[in-house]
Amino acid sequence: MTEGLSQLNEPRALLSNATGSTDCGEDAVLYGDAEKVVIGIVISAITLLTIAGNSLVVISVCTVKKLRQPSNYLVVSLAAADLSVALAVMPFVIITDLVGGKWLFGEVFCNLFIAMDVMCCTASIMTLCVISVDRYLGITRPLTYPVRQDGKLMAKMVFVVWLLSASITLPPLFGWAKNVTVDCVCLISQDVGYTIYSTGVAFYIPTTVMLVMYHRIYQAAKACARKHRFVDFPRPRHRDRISCVDSGVRPPRSVKRSQAAKECAPLSKFLQEDHKNISIFKREQKAARTLGIIVGTFTVCWLPFFLMSTARPFLCGSWCSCIPLWLERTLLWLGYTNSLINPLIYAFFNRDLRTTFWNLLRCNYRNINRRLSAASMHEALKATEKHEG
């Protein structure tokens, strides 16, 4: 029977070598020299920029005291996942793409490569999911949500994210749903059950959670905006008038200033506490808006690839991929581009990160913490003057 199978497979192998196609039916893409140069420059630039951007995030949070907070542990986890994709996955994909889609690194390394690819991409997606839940609790319970101030609890959340991500890579390594590693092909398992499980846990469930969380954040933001929309209190025209209610009635001259100040104290305390709540709300609202853009970008980048991955076993069967190789690689690199975009969005919307990035790029390492503290103090003074005005 073995001889019969080898004789049956020999013509297929000869046909594969003659036509430039694999045993699974994927047509190898034979690029010209000019096309290889252009494609190599583009995908290499994506890889290098991804490494640089996410390295800056990790270095900034680890070295700058102001950024070294439990609430940024998830940001570091996201950057570490994206950085791992750029370092351990993208270089091998670049080589495979430039040689026309043929896997040159053997069966054993193929399994390790797929495991690393799936784990790092899933960790990035799940971290975004946890960040969305964190932001939802932060904006709806700013004074009672303690996890973001507890480094141990936040570290446990990061550990659980990576543990769940690793669990998706284990089935192909232990016998269930083996990866396709024949005839220079390195393809994740096309078993229908495993495909539904892996795409559901890695993408569809986290994406659903993220969309639900940000819909609730949007509703909570509208409710808070209505709650904190105050009517203007009448302002005294002269310095010697003291009025703490909105009646606009000038207190009689016989009333002592101390008595008037005592009567105004409850209102002043209320306004100070509410101003504190508004400041917390605005800070969380800005962070939620930033992560909302990140989630939207993530969906645009990864949704086409996961739709293709889910449909592929039903269209092509369990042991091959009939999707055109150029389309498959284009959607894959669109997903990888999300790892490049994440640090750019953080740098654009986070002033502290943006300042730190700029100083690190200029090799201006000295007194970064002092400059950030001075900038924060300046912003606080401006906000206080605006509030008092």
From TrEMBL:
Pfam family, one: 7tm_1
Signal peptide: none
Disulfide bond found in the keyword field: yes
Domain G-protein coupled receptors family 1 profile: 53-346
InterPro entries referenced in this protein's UniProt entry, alphabetically: 5HT_7_rcpt (IPR001069), GPCR_Rhodpsn (IPR000276), GPCR_Rhodpsn_7TM (IPR017452)
Gene3D superfamilies: Rhodopsin 7-helix transmembrane proteins (1.20.1070.10)
Transmembrane segments: 37-61, 73-94, 114-133, 153-174, 194-214, 291-311, 331-349
Biological process according to GO: adenylate cyclase-activating adrenergic receptor signaling pathway; chemical synaptic transmission; circadian rhythm; positive regulation of MAPK cascade; smooth muscle contraction; vasoconstriction
One of the record's GO cellular component terms: plasma membrane
Keywords: Cell membrane, Disulfide bond, G-protein coupled receptor, Glycoprotein, Lipoprotein, Membrane, Palmitate, Receptor, Transducer, Transmembrane, Transmembrane helix
Single GO MF descriptor: G protein-coupled serotonin receptor activity
Top-level lineage group: Eukaryota
Family the entry assigns: Belongs to the G-protein coupled receptor 1 family.
Protein name: 5-hydroxytryptamine receptor 7
Protein source organism: Notechis scutatus
Lineage: Eukaryota, Metazoa, Chordata, Craniata, Vertebrata
